[in-house]
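Subject: design request, 343 residues
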């Protein structure tokens, strides 16, 4: 470390990771330009679980306590079988998670930035000459053009074998639950705005499913809380995506460019860690850029974040398999019960 460093940063992508990096770097005295291809912030979106490490990283970016104020604190939850019988309960989590939907999180992340920092309607390819910037942050999400430019199409995310639907219904769920059945799972959580967030994931070939009738058919014999959500959902508002994960990149850094978030390590959503890790990447990178020369900071960033996030990509996919296993469910449930006592 040699004093405090500041310079000029271009951030490609103004999503969760990009805007967190912008907040932290501005706080550390950097000039920042964010180039975001969307015309503005998204008006709708589903809830994200923000774990303690991500909440602490938001603090580093100058936004400590804000997500907690806007979101719903979650100190307990249930794992259930597909028929509603309990597998295990997580109780009195000492370090609770916060459930907050994407729009208020992005609003929070953009509110404190100086006017003119975020250039909406600017795809990365249309960004001005980047040679005048000391560092470029590739935060352009799962379909990252920045990653493609650095590492080529060989490192594009691959299909996890799962497709997911997400949405919300009126009225806040009393508690958080995730129900596990053969080849499928269903989650129900409270969220901001007195709403209930829900998500469903099933094993399926890529591009093979889609409509709400298909979704309802797959869960037709599940427990009443699942059926209640499926009855009440608004079909046009349901989001449906096949789920992809990144193959391990050889580095998150090339030259003066660093990849963060899904651009570097898209993962299955089963651990609820994708957005959290984008936030942690962003804050970690900003702190290193404050404390070191750009070359040294990027080297340290890759060392600090790559192996850990690549392990999470593998663990998330493994949990997807465990939750939807077709065999050994009794042994799995016993193991989850035992583990949850120590959570
Ligand atoms: C079903 C599901 C449930 C999830 N649940 C959770 C959860 O509970 N907790 C959690 O932590 N994570 C969760 N995630 C993961 C989370 O949504 C992502 O990991 C997170 O959004 C990644 O943040 P990011 O900033 O890397 O990318 P994004 O938030 O996707 O942002 C990328 C931004 O880059 C912009 N962009 C893209 N291309 C360009 C371009 N060429 N030029 C300029 N801009 C561009 C996009 O418009 C976007 O604004 C879930 C994901 C899914 C699919």
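Subject: RE: design request

Done. Sequence follows.
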């Amino acid at each position: 470390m040699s004093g405090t460093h500041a310079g000029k940063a271009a951030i490609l992508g103004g999503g969760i990771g990009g805007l967190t990096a912008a907040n932290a770097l501005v706080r550390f005295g950097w000039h920042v330009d964010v180039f975001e291809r969307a015309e503005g912030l998204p008006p709708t979106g589903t809830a994200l679980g923000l774990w303690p490490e991500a909440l602490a990283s938001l603090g580093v970016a100058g936004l400590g306590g804000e997500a907690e104020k806007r979101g719903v604190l979650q100190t307990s939850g249930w794992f259930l079988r597909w028929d509603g019988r309990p597998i295990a309960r997580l109780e009195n989590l000492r370090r609770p998670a916060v459930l907050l939907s994407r729009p208020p999180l992005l609003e929070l992340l953009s509110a404190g930035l100086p006017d003119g920092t975020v250039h909406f309607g600017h795809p990365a390819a249309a960004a001005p000459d980047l040679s005048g910037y000391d560092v470029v942050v590739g935060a352009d999400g799962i379909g990252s053009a920045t990653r493609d430019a650095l590492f080529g199409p060989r490192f594009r995310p691959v299909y996890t074998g799962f497709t997911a639907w997400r949405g919300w219904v009126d009225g806040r769920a009393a508690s958080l639950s995730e129900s596990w059945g053969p080849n499928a799972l269903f989650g129900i959580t409270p969220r901001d705005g007195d709403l209930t967030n829900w998500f469903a994931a099933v094993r399926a070939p890529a591009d093979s499913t889609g409509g709400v009738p298909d979704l309802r058919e797959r869960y037709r014999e599940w427990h009443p809380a699942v059926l209640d959500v499926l009855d009440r959902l608004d079909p046009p508002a349901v989001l449906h995506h096949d789920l992809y994960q990144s193959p391990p990149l050889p580095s998150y850094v090339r030259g003066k460019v660093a990849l963060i978030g899904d651009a570097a390590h898209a993962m299955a959503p089963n651990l609820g860690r994708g957005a959290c890790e984008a936030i942690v990447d962003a804050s970690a990178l900003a702190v290193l850029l404050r404390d070191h020369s750009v070359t040294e900071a990027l080297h340290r960033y890759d060392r600090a974040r790559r192996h850990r996030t690549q392990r999470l990509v593998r663990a998330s996919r493994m949990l997807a398999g465990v939750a939807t296993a077709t065999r050994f469910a009794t042994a799995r449930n016993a193991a989850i019960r035992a583990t949850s006592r120590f959570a």
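The first helix runs from residue 16 to 27.
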